[in-house]
Amino acid sequence: MPFFTEVSVDQILFALLNGTIYGLLLFMVSAGLTLIFGMMGVLNFAHASFYMLGAYFAYTLEPLTGFWMAIILAPILVAGIGILVERFILRHVHEHGHAHELLVTFGLAVVIAEIIKMVYGKFAVDYRVPVELNFAAFSLSGIDYPFYRLLMGGIAIVMFVAIYALLTKTRVGIVVRSAIYRPQMVEALGHNVPVVFMGVFGIGAALAGLAGAVAGAFYTTNPNMALELGVMVFVVVVVGGLGSMGGAMAASLLIGITNSLAVGSDFRIADLMAFVGMGGWADDIGGLLTMRMSSLAATLPFFIMLLVLVLRPSGLMGEKE
Amino acid sequence: MKFAPLFLLISVAVLIVLPWLVSGSMLNAAVQMLIAALFAMAFGLLCGQAGMLSFGHAAYFGIGAFAAVHAMNAFGGEGLLPTPLLPLVGGATGLVGGLLAGYFSTKRTGVYFAMITLALAELLHALAPHLKTVFGGEAGISSFRMPAWGIGFGGLNDVYFLTLVWTLVCIGLLYLFSKTPLGRLALGLRENAHRLRFLGYNTNALGTLIFAVSAMFAGVAGALQSINIEAANYVVLESHISTAVVLNSYIGGVRVFLGPAIGGAVMTFFGHVTSDLTRVWLLYQGIIFVLVMMFLPRGLMGELVERARNPSAEGVAQTLGTLLMRLASLAIAAFGAVFTIEFLQRLLSPEYRADITEGNWPDITLFSYDWAPLSIAPWAIGLGLFGLGIALATLINRRVAARKEAQA
Predict the structure, then answer these.
(1) pLDDT exceeds cutoff 90 at A78
(2) B122 and A287: CB-CB below 8 Å?
(3) Do B264 and B319 belong together in one domain?
(4) How far apart are CA B363 and CA A65, in angstroms?
(5) Do B317 and B254 fall within a single domain?
(6) Among A74, A268, A269, B397, whose CB has the most other CB atoms within 10 angstroms?
(7) Rounded Cα gap, residues B72 and B82, in angstroms
(8) Within an 8 Å CB–CB cutoff, is residue A195 touching chain B?
(9) Highest mean predicted confidence (pLDDT) among A120-129, A284-293, B200-209
């Protein structure tokens, strides 16, 4: 069997594209997390909960306002909740230190997940891609590529360009960036730093909410989505280095692409060992050695993380602690 | 605190005679409470004493549980060790797992450490369903307690005493550990790791060791759980177990030695009591945790110890009076909140939604009364009492602040 058939090349192309778009989605959530961390030193454990809230809000709003309005309104609502959380909860515990803030957001993540379960039930809700957007963008070797995936990628890219422009080209962006480095100085110059923090927290939450509103329709919207994505986002920031946007981008793409390549692969460690004549032995051992890559895909990001921790503990682009 | 030893002695005495005092269902809850207390103590060593926040402690609890089940099934059901010594197997596996995981997670500190522990636990949880021989797949692995040392281990009483002895011994060992040089260094690691490194200690190795010790005791707790339910399923690796231990320990007070144990026992007790009454116990647990973190940052026991050490200048009577008033106002607010949440839960439940026909909303039974969901009464009672309680609490706080100001 030739190693690369035309079909397999197309499949790899698909996997790369899927991975890139999943990576962009991960970046959308981890960017907000990194932004908030860089600015306030708070690791917001409830950040992925905002992603989930975005999906559920959009699901609730869709029958009332239509799909497009729903994915515009949902992030705004999520931003509102983020601002309330920052103003009335995080600021209250700020004096007890960052570990305490992390714990409070951890508790909030539990509360949000439980409220979602109470209101929408424990199982996935029927939030789908609207019919008018559910068509193939193009097809390669007979397989259609959904347009909606491209749309998700597109929205993510537009969002980054907007945030990047806001941070680097506007006066607001200058204040925000300087508030990260020298909050006291910025305050002395007459800027209201707490309001800046609140705004950044709200925008970070809105980004996660937007990601949820858009992605919830394509993937599933269930009460576990926050934990599942949250863990991936944490892996991304450990691999990329917290506080580094570039690192978060690189790690998001790395994890998105390896994940989707692995899902489509039948590779087994035993096959690799067969090259050195140990295939039979590996088959006898079984367990991890004979598991197909596709069923291991969910665990691959964790192995990448462990590898990075051993080789470069501060993350791909993180600074030394 | 002169009362502490006396208090401990009385508690232990009560625990020893407990099987003759309470019903079988309560005794079963007591076993769960002891296991939760030990697990929380293991977590407290890592988190309270060494300041390393782990969000994935279910992993070590889980591998202890599975190791114990495998040990029970070893040699065709004969068991690797006699039943009373099985927790040793859980502890040993926990220790090995902890060394391995600790090596990776202590490569980073602070929030990174927390994220890595979570990711490692999720890794194990994602792998477990694929490794059927080890984790038994969907069905899990079941087992039987074998009689040993002339004890049957058939009934609940025997299991209770086994759990009690192991829990007390382990808590005692944890106390002794906190007095060893390594235990003292744990405090140093929490307070100033930089300085420890400067003094020539290898903080990575130190962290790994403490992590492993904590994982070892978590493994013992997991093994006790397996012995109690005679089975293990990969549900024990799920994140809500890790979550529960974090919440319980911090509610109890993680910096006080017995704080986590009391948090774990109390919250497990409430979970058991309310399991028939409410379906959203986890929501309450989360809310209690957030409130404790916001208003009693030291946790319940931490706050108690602090008050006992620094009694307020107002005298016992006045302090007690204020405390009672505060508790009363909080009880009113809590009742209002619980009423509203329970009402909402019933209103939103799938069974109720199925009952709604065109324009007809059936009554909801809550606290043995029937309420019409579209009438104003249930909402007014719930939200009204909540508001009243909060208003009273604010009023009391203002008066106390004013009094302090007047004194100062």
Answers:
(1) yes
(2) no
(3) no
(4) 31
(5) no
(6) A74
(7) 9
(8) no
(9) B200-209
Task: Look up tokens 């974090």; give the residue.
Answer: B246
The pLDDT, as a whole number, for residue B77 is 66
> Is residue B260 within 8 Å of residue B43, measured between CB atoms?
yes
Same domain membership, residue B287 and residue B345:
no
Among chain B residues, the shortest Cα distance to A241 is held by B112
Q: Give chain B's domain count.
A: 2
- Is residue B302 in a domain? no
Window B:147-206, CB contacts with A under 8 Å: none
Strand pairing category for B231-232 and B141-142: antiparallel
Alpha carbon dihedral A135, A138, A140, A145, in 10-degree steps, equals -40
Answer positive or negative: Cα dihedral of B174, B178, B179, B181: positive
Buried b (16+ CB within 10 A) or exposed e, B97-123: bbbebbbbbbbbbbbbbbbbbbbbbbb
- Same domain assignment for residues B334 and B210: no
Residues 6+ apart with CB under 8 A from B407: B313
Q: Indicate whether B262 and B403 sit together in one domain.
A: no
pTM of the model as a whole: 0.84
**Residue B362 shares a structural domain with residue B252:** no
Would B77 be classed as within a structural domain?
Answer: yes
pLDDT digits (tens, 9 = 90+) for A236-293: 888 887 767 778 888 888 888 888 887 766 666 666 666 666 666 666 666 566 666 6
A130: left (phi over 0), alpha (psi -120 to 50) or beta: beta
Handedness of CA A196, A201, A204, A210 (dihedral sign): negative
CB-closest option in B114, B116, B239 to A227: B239
Closest CA to B41 of B261, B256, B209, B305: B261
* Inter-residue contact A129 to A115 (CB < 8 Å): no
Give domain status of residue B165, yes or no: yes
Same domain? B116 vs B237 = yes
Look up residue A88 and give its two tokens: 């009335």
CA nearest to B281 within chain A? A114
- Quick one: B100 and B26 in the same domain? yes
Q: Which pair of structure tokens corresponds to residue A112?
A: 């949000």
Which residues in chain A have Cβ-Cβ distances shorter than 8 Å to B293? 93, 100, 103-104, 107
Residue A76 has pLDDT above 90, yes or no: yes
Q: Is A97 on the interface with B (CB under 8 A)?
A: no
The Cα–Cα gap between A190 and B8 comes to 57
Q: Phi/psi at B144 (nearest 5 deg)?
A: -130, 145
Domain range enclosing B355? 311-407
Q: Which residues partner with A210 through β-bridges?
A: none
